[in-house]
């Protein structure tokens, strides 16, 4: 956009932003600069999603500067970069195109947001691809990962690319027969082949790094045999994992074994077989899942997900193979009874970890406990406690109750937001709506929560976030006052400087405490909190309501 046009747009916004109309809903509790300014203690960041019919890509802004006198800001998208090239399998005369996907990934510029991912498709006819990404800034790189559609063909390949200018990145996938190989068989305790087990190798996960697939993925055949190919330079140790598929026999555990790839030898191959430990036949066990109500009466907990997990490894396994058995079932919709086929030990009882995850609408809390599984029959009751109750009242700056305000619970750390512990289930917390007197209540699982207070759109009020609420028991937070809202205006520019219409703009705040966290410490990092969201108009302008400066 030419500078004189930008000045005209901003001038029009200033004229419309100054003062408050007494006829507008919420006018008594909202304002605009220069009458009042946004809360300067908030660290503002933003994301812009261009319209779906454009060729532009999402971009984040690690800072948003709002003029305190005018309430104006601009968001100018960086130049985009086009990566193109060919993906070929093999070299020389034997090279050929292959159906694959190309994925470019980089960390978000907003701490606590998921990685930014751009994906393209490789043409199986000529092996060409085109991928448009946002331009790398200083110190940034993309991890460019190529994976064939047929995962049994070659392992994924990853390379680092600095996308500072348009460039050609040709990628050669090594011919399968030139790659290191791990092969073997999977047998049961009677030395019979086990078909239908999915096998792959990954890096060994650590406290700070997740496991990454470094092999092809295959399924054992009728003879229990498998063969996988590793990346050209595999890590010194890989974790070999075999997981039952729908084609496998019932009641099989998952198997894992660490393999030393330094022993590949002159043939660039090694044998690593896996054996299912000797296990007794599964038995059908039923449990009544009940919740203790406010009166103490036991109430059936219906339609809850139950996950049973047990270590069924053979303590005498010479190769270090471990085995984990997992079974899932739902409680009955009427009686709350769950029935599962579980494996006891030869001597009788086996210890299981069970996680019961009720629906968010249920008043009962998620529970994880250890129980013993006997050779069969009825397993007794699993009793859940009530979820802790969070309650309070919300009013505006003029003491009017905010009815129809939405209460939105959210995990307080990035680790909690990204997912559950292994073998458990994420339950989306229930939201609540404030009544006519501004009061609300809802039940949440025990732990720490951040809670967003989202006024209805016609209230012209900002979102408010309450952080690190400790719900180890019922908690009444009392009366909460939502501060005055400040109407701010922005202009979204495309990389050429022209106004960008119909772009979705999201403004977040990030906690200053993230600066004290290691960038990889998800237990420390807090997710950014959404403060406002709107679409730009035909002239690229957008209006949002943010909290005012504390008085």
Short précis:
The protein has an 8-stranded antiparallel beta sheet, with no helix packed on it. Strands 5, 6, 9, 12 and 13 form a 5-stranded mixed beta sheet that branches. The longest helix has 15 residues, at 3-17.
Quaternary state, please? single chain
Number of strands: 40
How many alpha or pi helices?
2
For the biggest sheet, the summary is:
8 strands, antiparallel
Average residue pLDDT = 89
How many distinct folded domains?
4
Strand order of the largest sheet: 16-15-18-19-25-24-27-28
Shape: flat
Output the structural class.
mainly beta
Cα end-to-end separation: 37 Å
Low-pLDDT parts are 1-27
Amount of helix: under 10%
Radius of gyration: 29 Å
Q: What fraction of residues sit in β-strands?
A: 35-45%
SSE map:
Elements: H1 3-17, E1 30-31, E2 43-49, E3 59-61, E4 72-76, E5 80-89, E6 96-97, E7 100-106, E8 116-122, E9 128-134, E10 142-148, E11 157-161, E12 167-168, E13 171-173, E14 181-187, E15 197-202, E16 218-219, E17 225-229, E18 237-244, E19 254-260, E20 269-271, E21 274-275, E22 283-292, E23 298-300, E24 305-311, E25 322-330, E26 337-342, E27 350-357, E28 367-373, E29 377-384, E30 388-395, E31 406-410, H2 414-418, E32 432-433, E33 439-444, E34 447-454, E35 464-471, E36 475-481, E37 485-493, E38 504-510, E39 529-535, E40 541-547
Parallel strand pairs: 1-37, 4-37, 5-12, 5-13, 14-20, 14-21, 22-29, 30-36
Antiparallel strand pairs: 2-3, 2-38, 5-6, 5-9, 7-8, 7-10, 10-11, 14-17, 15-16, 15-18, 18-19, 19-25, 22-23, 22-26, 24-25, 24-27, 27-28, 30-33, 31-32, 31-34, 34-35, 37-40, 38-39
